[in-house]
Design brief:
single chain, alpha+beta, Phosphorylase Kinase, domain 1, D-amino Acid Aminotransferase, Chain A, domain 1, 2 domains, seven-stranded antiparallel sheet, 15 strands, binds adenosine-5'-triphosphate, binds magnesium ion
Length: 277
């Protein structure tokens, strides 16, 4: 069944997959195509296949470009972070990577929130409060925005979230605890390779186990959804490179993947990946 937040957005039909050689693969049911990823029905009930596209967008889709190899890198990096989180007991939707661009995930009921954790001032926070980019915050700050592209994902207080029934107080307590654990894990892993985790965004979804709801990390964790600065030079290694036209986005993501040792051996940004199945 299509989850409500995806059904709301509409399209469900079967899509033929064409391989690099032009052969038609098995038809798969398209669940949802977003700006950066596509969800297909998975092989088992309660699973989806998540396909990472090369499309980069910023400013809520106003700026758009295809960055060769971005999907391949984000598929690997999201796998790397999600498996790392699972190893320390933080549940995620990730089941296994299927190929260069696809991973098998657990279907969840997405909580319609972007959960943002900030360690240093940047982006909308720096703007809103007139803070210098890079200012260290007194402690990590968790904030929420309501996932609605038409409204530009507006920031919302907990009061709204509970009043509109998007999440309960218990959900929010669990989400904040989980988000801070993700922050500690990600900050440590990135610091280990000389990168500062400035901020990041996660999505969380609900799964049902024996009629009991449980929250798990969903969507993706990648340089598309984090701000990552080189500790020594301050060089930006995340989607701000694209947002602010600072150079090559694939160079930046490749550098992150290289430092973490997750660069797919047969793919660099110099060779256009063609393997999609
Ligand atoms: N495990 C999951 N189960 C169900 N839906 C998921 C899961 N993981 C991610 N999603 C949803 O799949 C979509 C991924 O596509 P993408 O990130 O490209 O969308 P988007 O264009 O950013 O739109 P959105 O505003 O919905 O995030 C998102 O809507 C995300 O919330
Ligand atoms: Mg998204």
């Amino acid at each position: 069944m299509t989850p409500p937040h995806l059904a709301r957005k509409g399209r469900t039909f079967y899509e033929a997959q064409v391989t690099a050689t032009g052969a038609i693969m098995a038809r798969r049911k398209l669940i949802y195509e977003g700006k950066a990823k596509i969800l297909y029905e998975g092989p088992e009930p309660g699973t989806f296949v998540q396909y990472f596209k090369d499309d980069a967008t910023a400013g809520n889709g106003e700026k758009k470009e295809v960055i060769d190899g971005k999907g391949v890198l984000n598929n690997r990096l999201s796998e790397f972070f999600m498996t790392g989180l699972q190893r320390i007991g933080i549940p995620t939707h990730f089941i296994k990577r299927l190929n260069m661009r696809e991973q098998l995930i657990r279907q969840v009921e997405i909580i319609p929130l972007e959960i943002i954790v900030r360690n240093f001032a940047a982006g909308s926070m720096a703007k809103r409060l007139g803070l210098e980019e890079g200012l260290q915050l007194p402690r990590p700050i968790v904030e929420f925005s309501y996932k609605d592209d038409k409204l530009g994902d507006p920031m919302v207080p907990e009061e709204y979230i509970m009043a509109f029934g998007w999440a309960t107080q218990q959900d929010l307590d669990d989400i904040v605890t989980m988000a801070l654990r993700v922050n500690d894990y990600m900050s440590g892993v990135m610091a280990g390779v000389g990168i500062k985790l400035v901020d990041f965004k996660i999505e969380v979804g609900r799964v049902w186990e024996n009629d009991y709801p449980r929250l798990i990390i969903a969507d993706e964790i990648s340089p598309d959804s984090c701000r990552l600065w080189d500790i020594e030079t301050g060089q930006k290694l995340d989607k701000d490179v694209f947002r602010q036209d600072l150079g090559s986005l694939s160079d930046a993501y490749t550098e992150v993947a290289r430092r973490l040792g997750v660069l797919p051996s047969n793919v660099t940004h110099h060779t256009k990946p063609t393997l999609i199945n």
